[in-house]
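Attaching the record inline, Q. Sequence:
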Amino acid sequence: MTKELKDHVALVTGASRNIGRAICVELAKMGAHIVVHVGSDRDAAAETVSAIEKAGSTASIVFGDLSDETTANAIVAEAAKQYGRLDIIVNNAAIRPESKVAELAYSEWRKVMSVNLDSVFLVCKAALPYLEKSPNAAIVNMGGLTGHSGAADRAHVIASKAGVVGLTKALAHDFGPLNITVNCVAPGLIATERKAQAGKNPKHHDTRTNLLGRHGGTQEVADAVAFLCSTKARYITGETLHINGGAYLA
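Structure, as predicted:
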């Protein structure tokens, strides 16, 4: 693999495991230095850093709640400070609880919105002064299959992920003149390891099928993200790339 992102710096949020970790490793293989964001899980963060180093690159870690504006600003500033620049943002941090609408507390609705959607806005806004200086600046926001297809017991998650798609389009308009691409990757039916406190896999995973007849892997999502961050995708912006084996056809 060519090191086309040599000396570039990427901030990947929600990078403690699964898709986030796979994205970090793939960008590292392309030569990028990685700033690994996690909420608080230091052991998982260390495992991600180890995987990045095995891929031949370097990494640093930032911790904190990105739905808080002050914290988000500080994390982005620290990420840029680590290597003296910031070229790539991957907004992967998200939570996906399930709850019937009749039982869904407004506080839970707001929590999901703040983590899944507000944090994307806050990070992108904070990163703008740094991305403007990059010759190959790219933002990739992580959406989701159900944000397009719908699903039961996930009104808050679906609304937040649909919002990410809309925000991606808006930012593509605002950031395009600055030579910053903004795209969305929407994974669906991806095999991941869930933390014990996260509970079982989403209900729709048990009933939904796709054209390829299998669940996808985290590497397949990471490959799509890496492409949109690469120099090969400089004429692509405002788009949503669906990675779901044909469960949803855009």
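Helices lie at 18-29, 42-54, 69-83, 106-131, 146-149, 155-175, 204-207, 218-229. The domain at 9-243 is CATH 3.40.50.720 (Rossmann fold).

More tomorrow.
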